[in-house]
Here is the input.
Amino acid sequence: MDTLPAALAQHDTPDWAALERLVPRFAARAAEYDRSGDIALDNLADLRDAGFLALALPRAYGGLAIGLRTVLEVVSRIARGDPSTALIVSMQYLQSGAVVRSDRWPADVKAELFRSIRHEGALINALRVEPELGTPARGGLPATTVRHDGTTWRISGRKIFSTGSTALRWGVAWARTEGDAPRVGQVLVPLDLPGVRIEKSWHQMGMRATGSHTVIFEDVAIPERYLVNLNPPAAAPDDAVQLASWHAVVIGALYDGVARAARDWLVRFLHERAPSNLGASLATLPRFQTLIGEIDALLLTNRALIDHALAREESGEHVDSDAGLVKHLVTENAIAAVGKAVAAIGNPGLSQDNPLERHYRDVLCGRIHTPQGDSALGTAGRAALG
Here is the structure.
């Protein structure tokens, strides 16, 4: 068994003090990475050195086996500094944690993956969305295929919106076998193999430093042990349901973190801005006091929604029936909160000299994550109507 790394050896919980020191550092770097569109590798290195990339692993492999509550807290805090970094880290926790919980992955592959995360700071993410199909959450089979050429297995296909792309060591590709009765599921791909390349295709207005480029597999030879979880299309494993539920709530908490960063900046701005014709700060004006109250009401609602999801999860109910609604409501509240801040202060809110403009672009991206609003509402409505 591996012993705990020094960064975790003295802790039964994450080193919150270390994270509190890192978040302002991430915030100071965020504008530069937003402009360049590069992944903040120094942020990830800081988190690796503080033990945060391995938190979802079992303790025997250097982690703390964190649950949903801790995932939400870590991701929310990082998002207040740099949400792009937070998204990469959230995928690290969701994917490595899903492997921990799955009984379908071979033990030797799990151990190999866990050791690389602990010793190398390796990053992992799912590679699912495709140009033709779009998001698999809306159904359909992937175009990415694995085939046996008589001597080895090979994977071919394209995966778009692959968060963390150039920083990843491992990709969990959603793929299918060829033939009339395909099996569908997860193929673990080391992204340094010959035939893997990354096409820089991420040119979005927000969350620009996530590096969510296109990963291309061109007849990549895969050891058979990496075909970890292939099943008939109708036999999706139960752990996929929990992963989707956790994903929805974590995404909501991330964008709530963006809104809280925007709110805190606005409070400072209102205290510091003192027009000469007013003779006092904007914070003294009733209309801005009401504005902050409106924003805080939205964020309080978000906290209650996230706490509701946590309570259900920790009671053993799991959050699948509510997770989509929580994500939808929390992200819409976050967007509304930042929008109110931008509208209230005019040009300073849209100036690249201030972080509020970046927070607004980033928070709007909450809508495009699975489950999207129409899907979440439709699923809830069908459940209610039986």
Summary: Residues 102 and 239 are 6 Å apart (CA to CA). The chain has a mean pLDDT of 93. DSSP finds eleven helices and eight strands in the chain. Residues 6-122 form a domain with the Butyryl-Coa Dehydrogenase, subunit A; domain 1 fold (CATH 1.10.540.10).
